[in-house]
Amino acid sequence: MFSKDGKAKDATPPRICDVVWHDGKFIKWNDARVHVMSHVLHYGSSIFEGIRCYSTKRGPAVFRLKEHMQRFLNSAKIYRMDHTWSLDQLCDASVDLVRRSDLEQCYIRPILFRSLDEERPAFGVNPFPNPLACYIGAWDWGKYLGDDAIEKGVDVCVSTWNRLTPNSMPAMAKSGANYMNSQLIKMEALLNGFAEGIALDDRGYVSEGSGENIFVVSGDVVLTPPLSSSILAGITRDSVIQICHELGITVKERSIQRAALYVSDELFFSGTAAEITPIRSVDRITVGAGGRGKITTCIQKAFFEITKGERVAPGDWLTYVNASASKPDNNGHKVKEVISTPSGAGNESAVKYQTAATE
Length: 359
Ligand SMILES: Cc1ncc(COP(=O)(O)O)c(C=O)c1O
Fold this sequence. Notes:
Elements: E1 19-22, E2 25-28, H1 39-43, E3 46-48, E4 51-56, E5 59-63, H2 65-78, H3 87-100, E6 106-114, E7 132-139, H4 149-152, E8 154-162, H5 178-191, E9 196-200, E10 206-209, E11 213-218, E12 221-224, H6 235-247, E13 250-253, H7 258-262, E14 266-271, E15 275-282, E16 285-286, H8 294-307, E17 318-320, E18 335-340, E19 351-356
Helix pairs in contact: 2-3
Bound molecules: pyridoxal-5'-phosphate (PLP).
């Protein structure tokens, strides 16, 4: 019934961190399981994050950890998930998880969801009777849109599916349920031979990809849809905006018509998974010269230098996982020391790590 296109994607199993953080404790990967009657499986009641940890000369460094965890807390608040985790506890747990893995670089996935109380089960839509469960896992994830994508760019389409409307499902919450819309966009794109789909908002303006924000380069100006176009407020999007400011590139948040994609000089996606991925065609119409454009290259270069710790970031963007708090900061970097109680409640050793503004 369905074409096989796209089914080979993600077929190679990634390297996985064999422990998972669960509500303050580390458990084995194989023990991180839920009951099939859990509320989340039936009603989509989860919120989550996607965070990259990069390999640097000073060991693994988590990119914009606090901002991701703040968005995680915001998503939980929107969905009235009354948990007890603080920003610092979640950040510490993530750092501790990476430290316990042998991964030099990885993708970190915190998730909070409505589970099942097996003693007193509740099966209705009302989420309140169901207990919450919080997990953080990690694995090594390669290039999200293909190995060549970062250099050569990807071919994409405009989806027949619209993005969520602001008062149906809030796009600014990173909820699992939102990704049913993303899956429709992604499957349609893959089955039609494209790497990704771009969704329009309910008014017909450009919104975002199934898992990425989008940027349009017109002349020497960079444009991106505003939050009112039902986008996720991407951390990478914010990083691109700040990098543009540093590079002296004019960047504006604007409603963008679909046709503007076809006549733009350059286009690119931004996202934790996709990083900065150039777009070389939309609906089989070549964008600019059909490859990675000059401005995209410039922004991408700065972005990767920052994530590798080789360029001064505009803020405290890297959290070094293995840095010892007692090690003096000889390079003039701004160092913030965080004493973590790594796994929240009742954990053994206190662990220290540094957040450096720059490398
Ligand atoms: C729908 C959607 N938009 C945008 C993004 C980019 O957000 P970020 O840069 O924070 O990863 C993502 C990825 O998380 C996403 O899933």
